[in-house]
Every structure is written in C-alpha cells, then in structure tokens.
Amino acid sequence: YRRLHTKETRLSKFNQMEIKAMLESYTKVLFVRDPFHRLIATFLQGMGISPSFSSFVQEVLDSGMHNGSVAWKPLVSLCQPCLIQYDYVVMFGFLRQELGHLLRRAGLPAGSLLPELTDSQVQWTYRWLSEQMFSELSAQQKKQLSRFYRWDLAAFPFSSSFLSE
C-alpha cells in the first residue's frame, strides 16, 4: 500500500477509502487470549502495583473501559473484530499448531521458523494459576469481571474461562 511506510500506524489516522484499501491488501491475523489469563499475566509481570491479585483486579475494574491499560482492556474494544474481517484468529494455548498452519498458508517453512512451544504445559499452568487467583476474588469481583469482559467472552471461544462460568 502506498502509505505503508508513513509514521502513522493507527487505522484511525487514515480516511475510509485508505482503510478499506489497506485492509483488503493485508492478511489480517488476530491473536486472542482468555481475558482472565491476560489479567494474571499482567499482574505477574508487575504491571499493577497492587500487593494482591484481588486488589489489582479492583484497580482494573475501577479504571473502567476507557481509562484502562491495553494490557487488560477487552480485546473487542482494541481489535474491533465486528468491523474488521480477520483472515485468521489464533488462540493462545494452540500457538504451535495454529502458527504452523498460518506459516504454511503463507508459503513459509513452518518448522524452522517456529520457536519450541509446549502448548499443553502452558494450558495446564494457566489452569492451575487461574484456580489459585480466582479463589482470591470476591463473588462481586467475579461478577464484575464477567460483565467487564462479556463481549470478549461472547466473541471468542473461551469455553474453559473462569469468567464464563
């Protein structure tokens, strides 16, 4: 696309005709992750200054949709999956399988480019962490988180998410 090398990186900086042309000319890939796992990862990386996971979750809920960090904002508000027709949606936890398929579709040698991913171990670890972290939350926080991420839970198949229970 002719304006590919501009400093502008957000689609909102382009007019509607340019946005349409760009979106039609690219392969669009969306990487999604269970919102509760995103919260856990953000907390563990120290992005929240809270001493406990429960107080961190309360900070997230208090910040709301518009003032929150991209690290925990609902994916639907960040990636606009209802407006942009993504060619691929890659789920965290199935990266090795899905990235291999994506690279083969792009005509690239999948085996040599993929890092060693152990998806089953990652899934087991996050399941265990989720159980531990979820138990720290009050019933009210659990309800508020489910509501906060309701559109992500409706848009993507996070069937085993603690928030969808």
UniProtKB/TrEMBL annotation:
- A Pfam family in this protein? Sulfotransfer_2
Q: Which InterPro entries match?
A: Carb_sulfotrans_8-10, Sulfotransferase
Entry membrane topology? Single-pass type II membrane protein
Q: Which GO terms describe its cellular component?
A: Golgi membrane
Q: Which GO terms describe its biological process?
A: carbohydrate biosynthetic process; dermatan sulfate proteoglycan metabolic process
Entry EC no(s): 2.8.2.-
Keyword list (alphabetical) reads: Carbohydrate metabolism, Glycoprotein, Golgi apparatus, Membrane, Signal-anchor, Transferase, Transmembrane, Transmembrane helix
Enzyme class (EC, first level)? transferase
Q: Provide the GO MF annotations for this entry.
A: sulfotransferase activity
Task: Name the residues that span the membrane.
Answer: none
Chief place where the protein resides = Golgi
Subcellular location(s) per record: Golgi apparatus membrane
Per the record, the domain of life is Eukaryota
Matches recorded under PANTHER family: CARBOHYDRATE SULFOTRANSFERASE (PTHR12137:SF64)
Report the family membership: Belongs to the sulfotransferase 2 family.
- Name this protein carries in UniProt: Carbohydrate sulfotransferase
Highest classification ranks of the organism: Eukaryota, Metazoa, Chordata, Craniata, Vertebrata
